[in-house]
Every structure is written in C-alpha cells, then in structure tokens.
Write a structure and sequence with these properties.
The complex is a heterodimer. Chain A is of the alpha/beta class. Chain A is about 35% helix and about 30% strand. The longest helix of chain A has 18 residues. Chain B is built from nine helices and no strands. Classes of the chains: A alpha/beta, B mainly alpha. Chain B: Belongs to the binding-protein-dependent transport system permease family. CysTW subfamily.
Chain lengths: ~350, ~220
Amino acid sequence: MIVIQNLSKQFRHKNQVYQALDKVSLDIAEGDIVGIIGRSGAGKSTLIRCVNMLERPDEGAVMIHGRNLATCTPKQLADERKKIGMIFQHFNLLSSRTVFDNVALPLELDKTDKATIHRKVTALLEVVGLQNKADEYPRSLSGGQKQRVAIARALANDPHLLLCDEATSALDPETTQSILQLLRDINRRLNITILLITHEMHVVKSICNHVAVIDQGKLVAQGTLETLLKESQHPVIQQFIHTQAMSLPPDIYNTLQPEYTPGLHPLVEIELEGNVAFDSLVNTFHSQYHLPYKLIKADIEYLGSTNFGRVLLHLQGTDDSNRNALLYLNSHHIKNTIRGYA
Amino acid sequence: MPDTTLSLLLKGLGETVFMTFVSGFFGFALGLPAGIFLYLTRKGQLLEHVLYNRILSVTINIFRSIPFIILIVWMIPFTRILVGTSIGMAAALVPLSIGAAPFIARLVENSLLEVPGGLVETARAMGATPVQIVTKVLLPEALPSLINAAAITLIALVGYSAMGGAVGAGGLGQIGYQYGYVGYDAFIMNSVLVLLVALVFAIQATGDRLSRKFNHR
C-alpha cells in the first residue's frame, strides 16, 4: 500500500513562486495500475518524482509499507529506492554499456555476485523479449527496444512498485501499445504496482484501473476510469474525454448546406458518453422510426459495459422520421449536433 | 647525421616524452578529482555547495592565469622543498603538473557536464551512492570526452615542457633553445621541430582513435 499524503511543492524562479503541487493525496493499492493524467505543467512529473524523493516535497508524506520516505535517512532512502523501479520518457540508458550491462547496473550497485547477475539479467531480457540483443549497445536499438531495456533494468531489483514518467510519450502509437501491453503483463505476472503519468488519454484507457486527474498542482478527480468518465464534469477531464469535432469526408463536406432545404437530409454528430449504447441506439432508429441512415464515421471505445466516443450519421428517412429521431436524441439527453444538410 | 647528434636528439625526445606523460599523469591525479568536485558542487548537482565550488573555481582561475614560464620561476621554492633541486627533469615535473592540473580540472568539468542529467537522475532513482554515480555512470559515460581532454592536455604539456627546457629542464626544448636560439644550428633546430610536430601528431591520432573506440553514443 502506497499512501501519498498532502504533498506540496513550490518552485521559486527569481521572484516568482510557482505551486507545482498543492496538497495532493492519493492511495495506491497493491497490484493496481494507477494513471495520473494532466496537461503539461500540471505538476504530474513533480508528483511522480516526489514519490521516490528525486524531488523533495516541501510538505507531506509518502508512506510505503508504513515508512515515510520524506523523513528517511539517505541510507534508508537508497534502500527504499532499490525497491522502486522507474522508467523515463527518454529511456536514460547508459550509452557506454551494452544492453546486458545496462540491465546489470542496479545489481552491480548492490554488489551482487557475477553468477547471480548473469542469471537474473538473462531472465529479465527474456521477459522483455530482447535476449538476442544482450551484447549490443543502446545506440543500435529502436525507441521501443530501448524502453524495453529500461523496463528490464527497472525490474532488476525485484521492485514492488514501478514508476513510469511519460514512458510512452516518445514512442509511436504502435510501439506505445506494445510497451503498455508489456507493462500490463508485468503487473499481472509479477504483481508489481504501477504508477504512471501521462498526458495521453489513450494510455490511461489502455491499462489503468484507477485514474487521477491533476490540474495546476491539485488532484481534481480520482476513481476508477469508468466512474470518472461518467460522472466528472471537471473541464480538464471533459477535455481529455472529448476529442475534437469529427472531420467530414471531402465529398460530403463539399455538398453540405448549412440550412435545411426540401430533399436534403441532416448529418448529425452524436456523442456517446456512457449513457447510451451505440447498438441500442441504432436499433431504436431502425425498429422504432424505420429510419434508414448511413454511418459516415465512428470513433467508439468500449470500457466494460459502456461506450464512449462519437458517431457521424447521415439520416436518410422522410422529414418526419428524421425529426422524430432527433427529438428522441434530445429527449434522452444524448448530445448531438447537426453539422449540416446533404 | 653524426651519431652524437642522433643520440642527442633521441635523448631529448625521450626526456620530452617522459616529462609530458609523467606530468600529465600527476596533472590528472590532481585535476581529475578537482574537476569531479567542481562538477558535483555546481548548482543543481549531486553535492551542490556554492561556497566550496566558488573557492575551488577561484583557485583554478588564479593558477590558470599565471603564464607558465612565470609559474616555473614562482614555484622554485616549493619545487626545492618537494624534489630538493630546482633544475633538471624531476624539478620540471612539479610546475608542469601544477600548471596542467587546473587546466585538466576545467576540461574534466566540461566533459562531465556533457553527460545527460537524466542518467544521474536514473542512478539516484536506483539508490546509487554519489561515489557509485561517479564511478559507474559519470566517468564511463564521459570517457570518450575525457580521452580527448587527455590528448589536448598532453599536447599542451609538450609545449610547456619545451618552455621548461629553456630554464634547464632538458628535453627537446632545451636542445632547440641551446643549439637553435643560442648556437643557431639550423639542422638541429629543424630536427627538434620535426620531432615535436611528430610527437603532437602521434598524441592527437592516438587520442582520436581511443576516443572513437570507447564512444558508443
């Protein structure tokens, strides 16, 4: 159990005081994957760096298994840090060491004997799928491979907690997914608690069980992903949930009219916010209003039993059935916008 | 070329190489720890300490501003205490080492500054002690740059040792001074120059090769 209590941190730059963290409290259960999301400059990086005291908080406590890291002696802190793995946005591998020796570094610091180092590093490289790269230098690896080496290194001391500081922000989407998959695997197989910070909602959606949203140094919401998406009205959360209005395909965009004229059909963008399932919605259109429609675009994500996202429908029924369908949306508080008529 | 001239030149070369490398060694023995200390006590670094950093920095600047030829003379009493004499090769090693050390300290500081700060942070997150961070992270990562610094230093020392030759330290400098400046023997003077040029080229080439070999960035 990791308990973050009332963490505060100020930075002074010349005469300006900047509150990076403002009484942040957060409980992390063992074996959980917790994501902290926020815009850049929100304080998320400071927060994760305070967890292992890379940054000293001005006030507050970080309790790990009942011990407060903020009041540890340097020796105790070093010992606690050995049980906390950390990975970074820019991997931070030593260019002078091979993949094998990079992973071996934390063990060397602990004065582990050579045979044990060899056994552990080999096993770790297998976990991250890089056993055939052991003797290469980091410069010959891709970004995703570098992060895998960094993960293996972070696991070398058998940590109970893994801190991920924007670990996927420098990677392309596909690599990001494979790294997240690896983190999820590690969490399940080794039962390591993971705390990650990110500015990307899809990272949180992909692997986190619990989410906290940080804005201007304060935690503005926390809970499971589902409850957060459903309930929270905080603008920062809304911003992370809602993507931009959908772009229209060019052929429709060119023929789209802003005003209704007879013979044209409405193009409606519907926001799914977890209060209605997409399939039941189209079912209703079909069976209740006998409404033919064309699905132009959809961007839907399923989270447990609910779904979130946007769909763009071109309704193609009679004027009456089109109007009734729109009335149905409004009466059921399903957000929709008429983008035009075509 | 008569045998005596050849052996004279070879002896001079040997002395110059000896002075360069031995004073380079002692220069590093003093300059490397000083450079590491300068780096570690800088603002925002591991052992940040404004006062210590300032004291060392000022000392280094003072020593670096003394022209070498004056440093030799100025240090004579100290040299006498240390090696018992103020003339000859052994005596020259003292001002050469002291003259090189602050120069090396600054080069080392710069090399360490080139190591990405994230690596130090990563080592801290692993629970590394400051000594471990220096020996396992900073020095190995800065090695190619440190080798370049060593080559620069040794080449500077070739020049310094020639200057020392003018005041009785031996080596190619003394030969060039006696036979060239005083006696004006063009052949010996030019031979000395060729040997010095060859020595400098050899040091630079070796430095470049070693630096490349250890550079995996």
